[in-house]
Amino acid sequence: MKDVVFTYVKNGPLVEPAQEEDLPRQMLGLLNWYKGYIKHKNAKEYIYAEVRYEHHFKHYWVQIPLSELFQLFNLRDLDKSIISCYVLMKKREMRIRNIHDVGFIDPHIVNSYVLEHHPADVEDDLWRFIRKQQQKSDILFPYHFGFHWILMVIKVQTSSVLVHDSLNMDPAIWGDMRKMMQKVWRRFVDTKVGEFKKELHFKMAVRTTGDIQPPGTNLSRYYIYKHTDSLDGRLGEAGELGVQVVAPEYMPTWGGAATAETESRRLTPGGREGGSGVCTENGEFRRQPSS
Q1: Which pLDDT tens digit goes with each residue over 188-204?
Q2: 8 A C-beta contact, residue 100 and residue 241
């Protein structure tokens, strides 16, 4: 008899009941929130995170399907939305810890799909992210193409890019993004006074045993978490390989439209008030006037 594969169903469990007691604290908190949220009669199949200019240099929304929470709990293939939330969480974490020399590029905004269909938007967004973060020592850029992720670390002062690839794939596969980055870099250098090289130098990171993804798996997203968390020991420990990405302590506004950073203020499901708005039971976000 074949084993029954545990799969996601609408309003179904995120983990097997026997596994709940073994969950880390933050994941257990997320699971309890999910159990409460799906009881609302108007609960949607997705939630939103609102990103404002002060969070990541432009205003946009990230849609997170609830099915992605199932994928996260079960360490399966993840969508861009979860990686995007991870990037936003890390930005907030670094502000709290007074780490100011690391920047990010949100893969929700810059990825292979947008590059293919809206190259002008990708150019403008890359230009914005580099220009706004030019004083950073490193700019971390998780890039998604096909069914794979790599992490590029842009080192502005040395005009170089260190590429972490858990599968060590042929760089020609993502050559279109490399060309776009060179184009944006030349645009950046032409407007700056300094000893910047005209071309970015790309170098593949030397892989160790723990950096190699097992063949036949789709776990490259989790290697992005690991490389990010272990960057010079500044961004925290890899620990749960980034599954804390959606922990309530970091993203406390999951009940519908959510802000990427709420500091000590909270928005919670079920219509309870927070510092800047209300999330209603059907997942809508209503902003309250400033006092």
Answers
A1: 999 887 778 999 999 99
A2: no
Query: Please, what is the angle between helix 80-96 and helix 66-73, to 10°?
Result: 80
Cβ-count burial of 100 within 10 angstroms (0-12 exposed, 13-18 middle, 19+ buried)? exposed
Q: What are phi and psi of 129, to 5 degrees?
A: -65, -40
pLDDT digits (tens, 9 = 90+) for 126-172: 999 999 999 999 999 999 888 788 899 999 999 999 998 888 889 99
- The architecture in CATH of the region 100-234 reads 3-Layer(aba) Sandwich (3.40)
- Give domain limits for the chain: 24-99+238-291, 100-234
**Which H or E element spans position 278?**
strand 277-279
Secondary structure class of 244 (helix, strand, coil) = helix
Range list of H helices, 16-150: 25-37, 53-56, 66-73, 80-96, 112-117, 119-132
